Hints:
Blueprint: H1 2-20, E1 23-28, H2 33-38, E2 40-47, H3 52-64, E3 69-71, E4 79-96, E5 99-116, E6 121-130, H4 143-164
Parallel strand pairs: 2-3, 2-4
Antiparallel strand pairs: 1-6, 4-5, 5-6
Helix pairs in contact: 3-4
Amino acid sequence: MKKQIISYIFLIIALIFIVGCSTLQSNLKESDILMVQSLVYCVNVETQFTGLDALITEYALIEFDSIINIEEQSDECNGIMEINFLATPKDAYTSYGGSGGSIAYIDSTMFIILRDNLKNKLWIGEYIYKGGWEMSGFVNTTPAEAAKHSLEKLSELLGKDLVLK
């Protein structure tokens, strides 16, 4: 009976951990790899935060520059990198030794689509960041930090997608 209870507790903890983890996923057809690598992308960012669009654009230029041809705005652009970013700042109440406090963290979603000049989707990447469940959540507590973290993850993913396919 005791072993069964311990097994159930372990299973519940494992399920909570799995459900709470951040997710990273992408979609790239093998036939689109050469197209993705050949285009010059202009960045288009949409967020819910005033002033964050320009910062995310700069972060994207830095993160993706070694992987694809990317420009802020240029006549050379024949592709578009669409970046959508949503974030929800949160607080978690903690209690330790009889005194309580709150820990700030952020949950966010970043969605990137690479399109050709005809608006065809060539690559789609999504990162759902659960700051309260990640060690990095103790550091990434603002929308700007979560956006930078998301861009790092998505640029790594695109790099792997272009090499492994």
